[in-house]
Design goal:
This protein has helices at residues 65-77, 99-114, 121-129, 135-140, 178-183, 191-202, 221-228, 236-240, 245-256, 278-288, and strands at residues 2-18, 24-44, 49-53, 82-88, 143-148, 152-155, 166-172, 204-206, 211-213, 261-264, 271-275, 292-298. Helix 1 (65-77) runs parallel beside helix 2 (99-114) and helix 2 packs across helix 3 (121-129). The chain has two domains: 2-155, Ribosomal Protein S5, domain 2, CATH 3.30.230.10; 166-298, GHMP kinase, C-terminal domain (Alpha-Beta Plaits, 2-Layer Sandwich), CATH 3.30.70. The longest helix is centred in the middle third of the chain and has 16 residues, at 99-114. The chain is α+β, with helices and mostly antiparallel strands. 32% of the residues lie in helices and 29% in strands. A hairpin with a 6-residue loop joins strand 10 and strand 11 (271-275). Strands 1, 2, 3, 4, 5 and 6 form a six-stranded mixed sheet that branches.
Length: 303
């Protein structure tokens, strides 16, 4: 059996507050994209979990989220079965695209089928929450508001790019440790996030930029561009750009190459941009290739 593991970007991200437990409350819009890894599995009757890769990984097996997901599901279901799992890894590490979490989510879906457990998404999401903050969303994917540390999800109607437009994702020759990104990020408080949610639900959504604008407001291209390039759309940029100039350079290059909007995803280091045509996105990808360790010209993904 085989399962696709689509990655994610963050269309909006606020760090609302630091919690007493040391974690942070977030307000974010998750969106899965048509780029990701692949997980395959065959049944083992002896109950053992074996994991192999398309190429060696630079971390121990016990810390791999695929291995952890398999163990967690087996323990929850009290299944006597095991699996030989093979991960074809494409997505980069330290990229803000949720690659490892997507692999864990795909493993939960895959073994749920392989072992004939028939557990609903809600149960898999609950198991996934113990593995990482992004895993519950990536079990189902699509478009969702996420709150808390990312585990409180409100799934929305599928969000699509306008016809003909394309998404470019590029990861610079850098990685951003999550701890570093959180260290200097401003805490926004709840107001901006609450206003954003209300705007999404009650106002016209300018889909080419992901910016809600009141239906009664006159909307020009310049208005949309100004809102879309608001640096507050992803507060992590304020924290990351001063110490990771390659990420800041990547975003600036996106804009120079014609992106209608460009943002850092999550806590970095990847940047994504929306282009009016596939051709423009591919031309930008070619220009950015010398300063990228990963690229994908793609679209949003929904189950």
């Amino acid at each position: 059996m085989k399962e696709y593991a689509p990655a994610k970007i963050n269309l909006f991200l606020d760090v609302i507050r630091k919690r007493e437990d040391g974690y942070h409350d977030l307000g974010t819009v998750f969106q899965t994209v048509d780029a990701g890894d692949t997980v395959e599995a065959t049944l083992r009757e002896d109950g053992e979990i074996h994991l192999t890769y398309n190429e060696p990984q630079n971390y121990p097996l016990e810390s791999d989220l695929v291995f952890k997901a398999a163990k967690a599901l087996k323990e929850f279901a009290k299944s006597p079965l095991g699996a030989d799992i093979h991960l074809t890894k494409v997505m980069p590490l330290g990229a803000g695209l949720g690659g490892g979490s997507a692999d864990a989510a795909a493993t939960l879906r895959l073994l749920n089928r392989l072992w004939n457990l028939n557990l609903p998404f809600e149960t898999l999401e609950s198991i996934g929450a113990r593995l990482g903050a992004d895993v519950p969303f990536l079990v189902r994917g699509g478009t969702a508001f996420a709150e808390g540390i990312g585990e409180r999800l409100t799934f929305k109607e599928p969000f699509e790019l306008p016809a003909g437009e394309a998404l470019l994702i590029a990861t610079p020759l850098d990685s951003v440790p999550t701890k570093d990104a959180y260290a200097g990020v401003p805490k926004s408080g709840p107001d901006r996030w609450e206003q954003y949610k209300a705007a999404w639900d009650s106002q016209v959504w300018v889909r080419s930029c992901g910016i809600p604008i009141a239906e009664t407001d006159p909307v020009s291209g310049d208005d949309v561009l100004e809102l879309a390039l608001n640096p507050e759309t992803c507060f992590f940029e304020i924290s990351v750009f001063p110490t990771h100039p390659l990420v800041a350079e990547m975003k600036q290059k996106f804009l120079e190459l014609g992106a209608k909007v460009a943002l850092m995803s999550g806590s970095g280091a990847s940047v994504f941009g929306i282009f009016e045509t596939q051709e423009l996105a591919e031309e930008a990808a070619a220009a950015l290739k010398p300063i990228s360790r990963y690229q994908a010209v793609t679209k949003f993904w929904h189950r």
